[in-house]
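Re: that chain you flagged

S.,

Sorry for the slow reply, it's been a week of failed gels. I finally had a moment to sit down with the sequence you sent. For the record, here it is as I used it:
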Amino acid sequence: MSKWPDNEGKPWSAADKAKLKQLAKENTPTRVIGLKLGRTENAIYSKAQELGVSLKPTNQSPYG
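Prediction finished late last night. Pasting the structure tokens below so you have them in one place:
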């Protein structure tokens, strides 16, 4: 049985939101952001959408 993240179900602090924005800006993978913030990937996606933060990589070639 997998362990739930540390911050599961807890409100997001201003520091958490700032960290999410910074990590997304640095093109950090969603899974890594979740691990660093102690949140699930779904929580990262939801909060990013709420804050208007794009999680799409900005500097990758479409041709691999």
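What I noticed first: The mean pLDDT is 85.

Talk soon,
D.
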